[in-house]
Design a protein that fits this description.
Number of helices of chain A: 0
Order of helices and strands of chain A: EEEEEEEEE
Helix content of chain A: under 10%
Number of strands of chain A: 9
Oligomer: heterodimer
Shape of chain A: globular
Radius of gyration of chain B: 13 Å
Distance between the termini of chain A: 39 Å
Strand content of chain B: over 45%
Chain lengths: 113, 112
């Protein structure tokens, strides 16, 4: 089971770039890295997923070094609406790994005006 | 575009009562799951299903039952509610081909 470690909380000013790093030292060969965002009183929402190197979409970028033992979610120019909890998950995509995908406590990002 | 629908949104039970939390998805996803989230904690997997007629236990299954008679529905049953089951419950679904889960809005349950 790939355990993940993230900072408990982070503060950032509006307009800044925010980088949240997740450690996953025992990631397996078949594991993907997935990030979710959760607003208060809502279910988590998928942000981005990657396997190696860099992935970018309209919301964020995900940087994964060659050894894949960590990953960094990058949010460009955050706004107040980005205040949320961000979860890093590591797990296989098939049904055999389904039950082994666990959510940690996540990183609570507070964006300050 | 409903996605994953959970009902009810809020529920208060007395200790010992039973109830069923409903979850329905309209995306034809094979995989569905139930999580609970306690204050200040992440989500913990209760039960999951990889298809109609197939269910399995997650991390915290005690006190809960599930069944999956159709692809669309995945109800969670509390057999005899206990105060320790006070939590927010989330249902999620995902397609076989993509490791991305889609979550409902949650059911906030209080057991007195």
């Amino acid at each position: 089971l790939a355990k993940t470690t993230q900072p408990i909380s982070m503060d950032s000013y509006e307009g800044q770039e925010v980088n949240i790093t997740c450690s996953h030292n025992n990631i397996a060969t078949n594991d993907y890295i997935t990030w979710y965002q959760q607003f208060p009183s809502q279910g988590p929402r998928f942000i981005i997923q990657g396997y190696k190197t860099k992935v970018t979409n309209e919301v964020a970028s995900l940087f994964i070094p060659a050894d894949r033992k960590s990953s960094t979610l990058s949010l460009p120019r955050v706004s107040l609406s980005d205040t949320a909890v961000y979860y890093c998950l590591v797990g296989r995509g098939d049904s055999g790994g389904y039950q082994k995908v666990t959510f940690g406590t996540g990183t609570k990002l507070q964006v300050i005006p | 575009n409903a996605g994953v629908t959970q009902t009810p949104k809020f529920q208060v039970l007395k200790t010992g009562q039973s109830m069923t939390l409903q979850c329905a998805q309209d995306m034809n996803h094979e995989y569905m799951s139930w999580y609970r989230q306690d204050p200040g904690m992440g989500l913990r997997l209760i039960h999951y299903s990889v298809g109609a007629g197939i269910t399995d236990q997650g991390e915290v299954p005690n006190g809960y039952n599930v069944s999956r008679s159709t692809t669309e529905d995945f109800p969670l049953r509390l057999l005899s509610a206990a105060p320790s089951q006070t939590s927010v419950y989330f249902c999620a679904s995902r397609p076989v081909a993509k490791n991305i889960q889609y979550f409902g809005a949650g059911t906030r349950l209080s057991v007195l």
